[in-house]
Amino acid sequence: MVYGHMCICDVELLYLRRLAAYLRRHPGFLWRIKTYTDLGACLKEMPEVLLVSGQALTEYGSREGDECLLEIVGCQIILLKDDSGYDGAWPVIDKYQSAKKLYEDLLEIFGEEAVEDTEVIGIYGPASGPEAERLAVEKARERLKNGEVLLISLAEFSTFPVENSDQNGLGEWFYYHMQKQEERKRISDWVYSEGDMDYLRGFRTVYDRMEVKLEAWHYFYMDTLRKSRYGTVILVFERMPEYMELFMWCDRIYVQWGQDGFGDFRKREFEKMTAYMGMNGLMEKMMEE
Known about the structure:
By secondary structure, the protein is α/β, with parallel strands linked by helices. The protein has helices at residues 13-25, 39-43, 54-60, 62-70, 99-111, 129-143, 170-179, 206-210, 214-225, 245-248, 263-276, 281-285; strands at residues 4-9, 31-36, 49-53, 76-81, 92-94, 119-124, 149-153, 192-194, 197-200, 232-237, 252-255, 286-288. Helix 3 (54-60) crosses helix 4.
């Protein structure tokens, strides 16, 4: 299935050729692509999606360009941010980045209007955070056949690989979201890959996580994870979250009560707590490992 017609317009012909070649050979990118160095000729195509650089807009004439762009009914416009300083009221993607990263940003922008089809799985390991993360990797490998998988650990001390000690992650994403920054960050800005897995670092400290309000978590689950490019997102919990809704919003939760002699005790206490909170339906999502 092909989604529709996309035009990419920039003044650099070599850049256009390389970007288009990458997108066309990517099996997950199902748009028909045409490239142009002249915005006037590009606009005559009446594309469904227009990826246009600031330099191309500047050379065409910013005011005239804006008026023509607005006349394309149903066209989604995405600005390729370059050194021109051009600023528009459209989603923005950095031109000067790898084709892989640009592709991921495109999918995330398209995902903002996509149906909610990403599976969100929780892994709960109250006995051992590292064991819960090991189980998460196993579940991730099982689901790679259904699409790309993103792993996010909310453990206090994660054993997941990190690109570098200064790696930004979920804590920074929530900061930008709650501060309502003009240039709001996307989770793909800090996703990194190790082997065939994608990872997003969690919070630097438990105190950072405690500052996140329920409303922000809801947006993260429903508007970011559910509409992401991933087939599956796996969240790892080593302790009960500040809001039990973080469990309820998962499609299912794999739980390891522990083999240290206290597993049955943990399970009983958890059942009592969910009953007290009126969340009996949560136990139906729990799958023991």
